[in-house]
Structure formats: C-alpha cells, structure tokens
Amino acid sequence: MKTVQHQVQNPSVQNQHKGASTLWVLLALALGTFALGTTEFASMTLVPYIASDLGVEVAHVSYAISAYALGVVVGSPIIMVLAVRVRRRTLLIALAALMALANGLSALAPSLNWLIFFRFLSGLPHGAYFGVAMLLAASLVPPEMKARAVSRVIIGLTLATIIGVPFATWMGQTVGWRSGIGIVAILATITAVMVYFLAPDQAVAADASPRKELQTLKNREVWLTLGIAAIGFGGIFCVYTYLAETLIQVTQVEPFKIPIMMAVFGIGATLGTLVCGWAADKSALAAAFWSLVLSTVVLAIYPSLTGYYWALMPVVFFVGCGLGLATIVQARLMDVAPDGQAMTGALVQCAFNLANAIGPWVGSLVILSGQGIAATGYAASLLSLGGLVMWWLTHRESRRAVSLNTANCAD
C-alpha cells in the first residue's frame, strides 16, 4: 500500500500549484469520456437509421459496433504500453485529437464497409483515453478516495447516456445519423483544448517502462477481475444495442419516446456509477457481486415487459445501473496491480469493449435465429450470470492470495 500512496499522492502535491483545481481537471477529463460515451452508445441507438440509410439489415449494422469495440481491444494495450513514458497530458491531447478525426470520418462513411473501418479507427483511442484519464484523476486525491475520483471521470460516460445519446438519437431522427456521430468530433476537439489548459503536466515516473507494465500480465487476480467485466458486462450491451429497435418493433412507441427511454437508462447509469464508486472504496468485490446480481435479475425480467413502455422504464433504469460495474472493476485492479496501473487501465477498457463486441454479437444470433428481438434479454441475463461465475473465481483467488501472504508473514 505504501507504493500506491507514493504513486498517487506525490503528483498531486508536485502539480497543485501548476494546474487548475481538481474539480476543473476532472471536468475536462469527464468531457472526453462524455464524447466517448456519446459515440459508443449513440452508434447503438442509431442502428435503425444507419441501416435504413445504407440499405442494409439491422443485424449487419451491429458489425460496425463490434468493430469499434475491437478497435478498443487492439488500441488500448498497445498505446498504453508504448506511451508509458509519455506525459499524461500530452497523451490525452493526442488521443482526443485522434478521437475527433476518426469520428469525423465515421460521419462521412459512404458505405457499411467504410463505416466498419472508421468505427474501428474510432475505437483505437477509447481505452487509452479512459485509462490515462482515470490514472490522472486517481493521482489528484488521497488513496482512500481514488474510486470516487475514478467515478467522476466515468460519470462523463453516464451523462452521455442521459444527454449526449438522446440528443444524438434525436439528431439521427431529424437530421440524419451522420450528424449524431459527427458532433462527437466537435466534443473531442473541445476536450483536447480543455486538457491542454487545465490538466497538470505531471512528470513521468523515473522507473516507468513497458517491461514493468507487462509484468502485470502474470497476475492471476488481474485476469480474473477482467473476466468479470468481459463476460458479465456483455449482458448490458446485448440489450442496449437493440433497445431502440425493440421500442420500434415490439413496444411500438412514437419516435419521440425513444430518446426519453435512453435518458432513463442514462440516469440509472449515472446513479449506479456514483453509488458503486462509494461502495468500491469500501469493498470492491462485494460491490461487484451485488451489481452483477442486480443485472442478472433485471435482464431476465426485461423480455416480458418490452410490450409495455411505462412498465419497461424502471427495468431499463436498473439495467443502466449496471454500468457502475466499470468503476468497481477499475478500483479493484488498482488494488491488485499497483505497479502496473497503466496496463490495467488499458486492459479494463479492453475487457469492457470485448463485452461490447460479445453482447451485440450474441444479440444478433438470437435475432437471426428467429427468437425475436425481445429475447435478447434472456441471453443478456445468462451473460451477466457468467460474470457472477467469474466473480466467484476471483473471490476464491483473492482468499488464496491473502492466505499465502499471511503464511509468508508468519514465516
């Protein structure tokens, strides 16, 4: 723990007089996650409009969503390891610039194949930005408040589901889906400017190296914790990807009610993130358990209520609460891998976006098999249940590690 305190506290002390207040720095960082949340989740709600404009099947548009997620999986570890000695502020500005360029190109895509390619490019800076932003946020506060600081950065993503995604959905309905994605390029540009002026220019740790970060890959607890996210989180994406189409096909609502439901999801995500940030500072493993239990139950209930708009609303709210798992997993990884936080910051985004690739894919299998779009909820619940299995394995490994440390201390 002393090592963690040294890494977290010193940068804050060294840069307190150089940078803006912590609140403003967190705001700048959160704007970037707001942009990322908007582009990631809005691409799901815009699926019907993309399919109609490009003349392809709804299920095929999910390939573009999976391509974005795979871009995150590829880009996150490579960027974080190769840029481990790059100052965090400089790296964040570069990532925001890449975000702006790739989303601008996505908005101009002339065909589905080009859209898939540009969405892959858009995903490359996603995980690295999240990882660096969360590490910077954690460095600005005492160790016992790091999960709450991380939650303030992630809250940009959840606010995107309340404001950014409904707005992008409305833009997709009225102006066209391209405007819904193109606006992210503007947000990313503003992020780069804010980070330049507000974020502290922290020095890189003298012992930082790719080799040291890669040592994290030997830690079993890291991989098991990532498994919770990669499998358990897939259920939320399995349902959310097809939520707009479900509201059109099954619930048969007026178009203006779709953004309202998306905002309900976002409110749940925001409150869930705040609560999970507080709970993770108490016990990350316990918080993860209850988050997964909640998701498993509400996702199983989801299909039976898709025909009733008002009854579906509280279910979608609690599905959104499941996004708080992101804060929990990040806090857990900071605890079990204090010497490889850059790598774990990247890997956690890989895990969540692997879930983002798995969820829509599993949902497309359900739809193409003829089970009906509402049945994605049952598949989603099974994915969340798989996350609970990974939680049990993680809990068992954690107890084993504690026993070994106790035995070593006794010797």
From TrEMBL:
The keyword Methyltransferase does not apply. InterPro entries: MFS, MFS_dom, MFS_Efflux_Transporters, MFS_trans_sf. It is found in: Cell membrane. Its main location: membrane. CDD domains: MFS_NepI_like (cd17324). Residues 25-399 form the Major facilitator superfamily (MFS) profile domain. Pfam families: MFS_1 (PF07690). It comes from the Bacteria. It is a multi-pass membrane protein. The chain crosses the membrane at residues 21-51, 63-84, 91-110, 116-141, 153-171, 177-199, 220-244, 256-277, 284-302, 308-329, 350-369, 375-393. Keywords: Cell membrane, Membrane, Transmembrane, Transmembrane helix. PANTHER family: CHLORAMPHENICOL EFFLUX PUMP RV0191, PURINE EFFLUX PUMP PBUE. This is MFS transporter.
